[in-house]
Amino acid sequence: MTLHRLSHTMSQSPTQSPSSPTTNSDDKAAKIPIEIITNEEMALIEAAFAATATAAAMPSAQLRRNSMSICSITLLSKRGLSVCTATASSDIEDSGRVGSNSPQKNKKNRVMTSFLHRFRRGRGLSVTDITGTEWCEKQMEFILLFGKPQKTKAMQAGSARHVVLEEEVIKRVKVHVESAEDVWALKFMNFIVGANQLLFDGLTRELPLVGFIEGVWMVGIIDEIRMPVSESERFPILVDTKTRVQATLPGEPQRRNGRLQLMCYKHMWDTLVAEKFPSQKFLDFFSLNPNHILSPEIRENTAKSGFPSETLNDVLRYLGNSCSALPQAYDRLLLRYELQDDQSLLGEDEFAYEPSWLKDQIESCLEFWQGKREASYPPMEERWKCRFCKFASACPANSNPDGSPSETKNEAILSPELPHK
């Protein structure tokens, strides 16, 4: 059975985020429809818009000339706020007073200038933010401050493959939305529809998740969930498919990054089904009105899907009912690797869920996002990643004492590629 999954267009200015106050219904201003496909892609788009226009358009040569300025931004965004010089304070907005001796003021400055506060306070972290940080914190910092480089052909091919996989079981339908409440209602509606599909058909794909993990709100989209039908105890199996340009399996750093992604999904899934969704905390954090009347198209689609809802609060109640009917995910997760040319299976990596390792990884990433420390670099044995990073020429890790770029040795690894779908 093929179900309908809802995507949306939004009537708001291009610079208005989904969490911004909605315009009055009497507003005669022109409305520009914006189609938003996935949370991960929105995270990258919002990061690019958040950077200054000058920095976003800065050519690579100018980036090299401004490497010291970039270093200053790094220092001001992290733990060392109190030791930065006053001359560097102009490199970052909202940096607060430099050199303050007050621990409370320093703590407040770190929070206000943290990447989490500046770039993700409107909708929370994505799982891609976590995996991107684990891959290289310095690269993530550059992406946030200067915008994400253009997708490679390999990344575009990987995204296209996931669209094909989704369309095998789900038909995407565009729905017009008018408010932040509508946007979040759509996310929860798609989860409810996907969860029902999993229970009845044993398979769903591109399932959106929202959860409160390690003290922060996190969003993500699971590639695929399977529900065995022949076993007495039915536990959902979480699956992620990665595409490969070369007919080789990835090295350990890429496998580790993929495992982290799937473990994040399992943690979010298990939290959703085992605990009552913290609706009030969610509404307060994102400044949402639970009694806001949803757009006509959303109300129409909720009725067609079997859970008629007038308000976001109605949708949240159905979300709670749906989660209570789901079991926790199977404690073994599956990574699949396909060749991009013909979608042939290169191999599978089935591995056990490790909650303590996952907790350590998330907490380490959050230290970076919350401004508790400076961005770290990959270990020396993984510096081959720099050869595939668009910011390598401006990164202090690749500079000699005289400021000239240094050669990065390619460590022994099969087919090094940036992690992508």
UniProtKB/TrEMBL annotation:
Record-stated family: Belongs to the EXO5 family.
The protein, known as: Exonuclease V
Residue ranges with Polar residues bias: 397-407
Organism: Handroanthus impetiginosus
Gene3D superfamilies, sorted: 3.90.320.10
Residue span of region Disordered: 1-28, 397-421
PANTHER family: EXONUCLEASE V
Stretches with biased composition (Low complexity): 11-23
GO molecular function, one term: single-stranded DNA 5'-3' DNA exonuclease activity
GO terms for cellular component: nucleus
Biological classification of the source: Eukaryota, Viridiplantae, Streptophyta, Embryophyta, Tracheophyta
Pfam families linked to this entry: Exo5
Biological-process GO terms, alphabetical: interstrand cross-link repair
